[in-house]
Amino acid sequence: MTEIASIDPRTGTPVEVVAEETGAQELDALCRAAGEAAAPFAAAGRQWRAGLLRRIAAELEADREAIVELADRETALGPTRLNGELTRTCYQFELFAQAVEEGSYTEAVIDHAGDTPMGPRPDLRRMLLPLGPVAVFGASNFPLAFSVPGGDTAAALAAGCPVVIKAHPAHPATSLRTFAALERAAAAEGAPKGVLALVHGVRAGADLVAHPAIRAVGFTGSLRGGRALFDIASSRPDPIPFYGELGSVNPLVVAPAAASARGEEIAQGITGSFTLGAGQFCTKPGLVFLPEDEAGTSVADAMAQAVGGLAPGVLLSEQVRGGYEEGTRRLAGSAAVRSLAEGTAPEGTGWGAAVRLLATSAADLTAETAEECFGPATLVVTYRDRDELAEALERVPGSLTATLIADDADAEFTAALEPVLRDRAGRIVYNGYPTGVAVAWGQHHGGPWPATTSALHTSVGITSIRRFLRPMTWQNAPQELLPDELRDTPEHPLPRRVDGTLRV
Fold first, then answer.
1. For the chain, N or C: smaller number of CB within 10 Å?
2. Catalytic member of 90, 161, 282, 373
């Protein structure tokens, strides 16, 4: 059995062996246990699940110091960033607990029996129910908020689904530590055995998606890995939904008047955004569109000056660093792409990488040069006019975000460009920077392929629960057979639509 080692990215050396790859028999047993836990877990009810979610947040908070120290050793993201991420992680569980108690996510509907223009109507009652066991794949770049205790896990548990989590090899020790907090919470709340499980290894991940007990998958990772798992989920005898976040280039457009009025400020903001976390944010602006005029040139020059003085970033893993070096070589190898600036080169061992700023023109932008390059690099794209910009944006792949930096004098430009950006992304950011995804009811973290495999859904915010639910209608059912949410007088009241009228 292959050993799973915890590696320090600052040195590139193994620190300790923390686990072994999960074998086929163990994986089968864990998935079967999740399947057996599904019915009792769903039947435990919303109020009990809310208590479980809050207990998980409390257990993570109680172990904050050790979790952050371990995560920093495995990711080099720094204690400030990781403390903020853990706070976000705990907040996610608290917010989902509130949503589960409130209950509107169930979309409960009651249509009483009665006469209609089409004749008599039966009594119809509809709501969303848990799908069943969910496979969750931890992400490398957010070892807490998008990993073992991350948003997919929180959403699946909130929906009432058991979770089998595939630990990310870039932070296996952190995965074990945070999973222990989840297990303590489940034990304290009396959760059914099998409601939580953790597996390791590439083979285990593929087998997990193929296992018949698994009813849906939440994934954040590379296009190559995600597409392979997506194909497994789709080719099963019983295909299941695969909610994958696979990569995003996140175009950022600076309008002409804004570039002229506040170019230095914009240059600082863009540079800070694309280098944040060593460029390892899924919302990093990978394409920066600047006007091909004096103001746009000044913004690019200011960015180049800032980049030239930046120290190298430490990337999350050897694989991430390899992909970054390959991606920047691919860009630099294009005859239409030139280098504007490069930060300090890394020294010694470890997975350091220099910050890189490259440039091309909107006319020369191709599907290949518009691809995501994960890490601290961005491509400046200069445009001559609005029409050329719109044509170039059509060649940009689907993204999680699109950003527009504009002033009042750019109103006509903005109005014409907004529909173009809307077609390319799931969230439009105005006069801000895309690195940062608030956990809220109004958030949408998704987008057209290849940003995600389903632009209909989000992986952040309360509506992410919807991925792990399915609708069910009861017709003329007796009260005692109905879920509490659909009874005439529910024990735990919730917003419902009754005979077409929303009642809160």
1. C
2. 282
- 240 with 96, same domain: the answer is yes
The per-residue pLDDT for range 435-486, each reduced to its tens digit, is 989 999 999 999 999 999 999 999 999 999 999 999 999 999 999 999 999 9
CA distance 164 to 393: 39
Burial letters 254-270, b for 16+ CB under 10 A, else e: bbbbbbbebbeebbebb
Q: Are residues 165 and 30 in the same domain?
A: yes
Which residue in 245, 292, 371, 485 is the catalytic one? 245
Domain that holds residue 414: 251-430
Count of helices and strands (H, E) across the chain: 13, 23
Coil, strand, or helix at residue 169?
coil
Q: Is the Cβ–Cβ distance between 262 and 409 less than 8 Å?
A: no
282 is catalytic: yes
CA distances (Å), origin 136, targets 7, 139, 254, 441, 458: 22, 10, 37, 21, 15
Q: Which helix (H) or strand (E) holds 403?
A: strand 399-405
**Does residue 491 fall inside a structural domain?**
no
pLDDT at 313: 95
Residues 190 and 270 occupy one common structural domain: no
Claim to verify: residue 278 and residue 405 sit in the same structural domain? yes
Q: Which two tokens stand for residue 115?
A: 């006469």
Residue 231 shares a structural domain with residue 260: no
The domain tally of the chain equals 2
